[in-house]
Fold each of these.
Amino acid sequence: MGLSKASTPNPGGPHCQSSHAVDKLPDRELLMADASVLEAMYAFYNAVKAAVSSPNSKDPNPWVNPSKFCARKRPDLFPVRDRNVCAHLGILNLSDARADWLVFRALVQDDDVRRAIDTLPEGAHQAAGERQLALDSSVLRLLDAALWSYTVWGPA
């Protein structure tokens, strides 16, 4: 039983474009991303955004879900951009993924921030006590989790 024509992806459509764009991403961390890496990231992000965007939706320009998808595919390269974290960092109104990525790159390059991130796993394991805890080892994922947790549970 084959695929019906309706369920066959369009070879030039957004799903195929995002598949091609992810293949062009260099194997690099955001920490070391230069201009060419940022452009490849932007091509992939835009392809994902086009693939998940619906012209019939109330907001045909979604950015959170594509950001989460990109971060899932390349956790060392793409930060999770959501309203809480972007508002906390003061970048929500920039409305530009590339500018956001530069802010996240500056954060993971900062020595004080890196030292604080390096202490997170030990502190989380201590807080967990006897409970099993699985943590991501990616510096960017730990930063994402710390920022999001702070925006949700941190001081008011």
Amino acid sequence: MSTKDGRAKERILKAAEELFQVKGYHQVTVREIARKAGCSHTSIYVYYGEKRKLLELLAKKPLNELREDVRQILAKSSVTPSDRLVGLAKRFVHFGLVHRNLYEAFLHAEATRVDIPTTLWELNDIRMQLFDMLKKAVALNHQPWNEERVVSLSRMLYYALHGMIMTYKDSDESIRSIERRVLPIVEQTVHVFLKGAIQS
């Protein structure tokens, strides 16, 4: 690849990132990305094939880092199952706040259902692996739960964490300031969630 092509690809990826942050993935067209990048829309198809490839390139590294962090949290056998779930929940909320302008695109754009066993897109594979890790962390807290119950409970907890992140999606407040208030609530939420789940 020539230096010129390399610069064009960088401009396209940067333009896509900025537009996805401001307008949202689904609202941005390939032509808009091309205009912002100063190239033709056909160049995007030549270099990347389709719009979702741009999202994949932007999301893969952060999602892979999140997946590895969650894997390490689950591997901490020296802490209780509830503490592992708290750690996972806090890490997920931190991820959402750090990437709040792209969080929805990273986790939800062109997503498949979590109960579908196979997917044709690598980004969805990573997303499903993350949900499987959440299920594992939930299941560790009460072994008699069957798979259907674990999936249902995992969805409930995910929706709660998602709601916390979305509350601050458009906030200009610093992450540190938000987390001082929100992370203690995340911990309380997990403990209340587990208490209710075990008793129900």
